[in-house]
Amino acid sequence: MPGVLAHAAGARVVVADNASTDDSVPLLRREFPQVELLLFAENLGFCLGYNRALEEVHATPDPPRYYVLLNSDVAVQPGWLPPLRQLLDVNLRIAAAQPKLLAHADPAFFEYAGAAGGYLDWLGYPFCRGRIFDTLEHDRGQYNDPRAVAWASGACLLVRAEVWHKLQGLEPTFFAHMEEIDFCWRAQNAGYEVWYAGGASVVHHVGGGTLPKSSPRKTYLNFRNGLALLYKNAAPSELAPAFALRLLLDWVAGLRFLLARNWPEAQAVGRAHWHFFRGFGYWRQRRRLARPHLQVRQRAGTYAGSVVWAYFVKGQKRFSQLRMTRDKC
């Protein structure tokens, strides 16, 4: 918080408290009285919590043009905000942008949650410049160039307020995980762009503050939301083959957990699929609402191949080893 206040570049600083049970609220009131507080009576989750908070911010007499979604485990660096804001000032088609995310524990490495901008393969699997699955690259300035991407990290996300409300914010049913990817995909389907600001804007992210890296709850959310992400946003001609193969690969992952006798993770995959199909009526309704925008289009940050095949079979662990045939940048 001291870093955020020191480098806010004139922005309002608002903390939304999701019914925390520690001393966060008294500490904020005591140590940072200049921070605006929004207190929720229950834990609304990452998605609905942000939606409710930004509804209240938007309802103020002077609503902002831009919002920054900033996780509480992010340490901003001097000069991080103006380059992000400048991108949206210059190009009205840009809906959202992220800085370079480096690991707080060792800033020589990119951070898992967003690295140098997010990409998607044709099955909807997310990866980043600087991070594919669990392989994190050293930051040597190799990804300092600003560019359009498929998605920007929700750990630190500058978003145009008009687009946020037009798209109705984050998908509340996701609760957490992949919600920013869904938002960015919807923005691209609506004709907007998503950008990575390059090396001019840098933050350090701890990561894993909500759930540990190895967690059945996180596995459940990732697998369930991954199916919903693809089903909601893929164009009709892309959906059937991609969805069928995605289901197959999910079952392979579940089988690997079983063979390793990791019962909680295997059960998480099964529950994810069960809950997705049990709630299929809801997801079908969400896809129906998005149908006017669902068409095959050249989207930045799209990999025509399978990142699973490239990583696990071909041994391509770094972003530079992938052939981005459909990346218009």
UniProtKB/TrEMBL annotation:
Pfam family, any one: Glycos_transf_2
Gene3D superfamilies reported for this sequence: Spore Coat Polysaccharide Biosynthesis Protein SpsA, Chain A (3.90.550.10)
Coiled-coil ranges (or none): none
Domain Glycosyltransferase 2-like: residue ranges: 12-91
Keywords tagged on the record: Glycosyltransferase, Transferase
Superkingdom of this protein's organism: Bacteria
InterPro entries (UniProt xref): Glyco_trans_2-like (IPR001173), Nucleotide-diphossugar_trans (IPR029044)
Family the UniProt entry places it in: Belongs to the glycosyltransferase 2 family.
Protein name as catalogued: Glycosyltransferase family 2 protein
